[in-house]
Design a protein that fits this description.
Helix content is 67%, strand content 2%. By secondary structure, the chain is an all-alpha fold. It contains 13 helices and two strands. It is globular, with a radius of gyration of 16 Å.
Length: 192
């Protein structure tokens, strides 16, 4: 658990238990191994950098999740890009981590497409909306990407701003209002 995840409401006993669970440990090791073996980077850094940021957001907003699924959600935060980026299949993830993690990971896997818009099409968003907790993990992913892009002055922050209205239209129905509030603030043009 990162220092950021230890602050505030993160020390909740169920969160500590989930983070130290066999499933989350296995998911972390599996995801890092898969991304390392495919030499997948995040802005030139080990991809684990991005995965940890997503997990940190999953921890930050863990109070929005029912305790009995928290470890599945955190495990899925680790694996959310594994099928999309690492030549892993749904069955690979299912065999390694179980059907619940595989379902969320699969729902977060972009479609084929030549552009971001083609890859994040209506079928993709339907899958997220119809898979329990996939919207939560997707929000953690978007928050991590937006925060990093804004901190780094990356051109991707403009892509996230441009996509935000459509992203909200597709996924705001999944709930998690405090996460949406933070995302809107991150995508504002202020100095936050």
């Amino acid at each position: 658990m990162s220092n950021e995840a230890l602050n505030g409401n993160f020390a909740k006993p169920m969160l500590v238990a989930a983070l130290s669970s066999e499933l989350v440990t296995k998911a972390k090791n599996y995801a890092i191994k898969c991304h390392t073996e495919t030499n997948h980077k995040y802005d030139g850094k080990p991809y684990e950098t991005h995965l940890q940021m997503v997990v940190d957001y999953a921890c930050k907003y863990a109070y929005l999740i029912v305790d009995n699924v928290l470890e599945v959600v955190i495990a899925s935060a680790w694996t959310h890009d594994t099928i999309e980026d690492c030549r892993q299949t749904y069955n690979d993830v299912k065999n390694e981590l179980g059907i619940q993690v595989a379902e969320i990971t699969y729902a977060l896997t972009n479609e084929k497409g030549r552009s971001r818009k083609e890859r994040a099409n209506s079928f993709y968003y339907d899958g997220i909306r119809n898979t329990p907790f996939a919207g939560y993990v997707k929000l953690c992913d978007r928050l991590a990407n937006a925060k990093y892009s804004k901190q780094q002055g990356s051109r991707m922050i403009e892509a996230y701003r441009k996509e935000h209205k459509h992203f909200m239209a597709e996924l705001s129905c999944v709930g998690f209002e405090p996460m949406w509030d933070e995302l809107s603030e991150l995508l504002s043009y202020g100095c936050h």
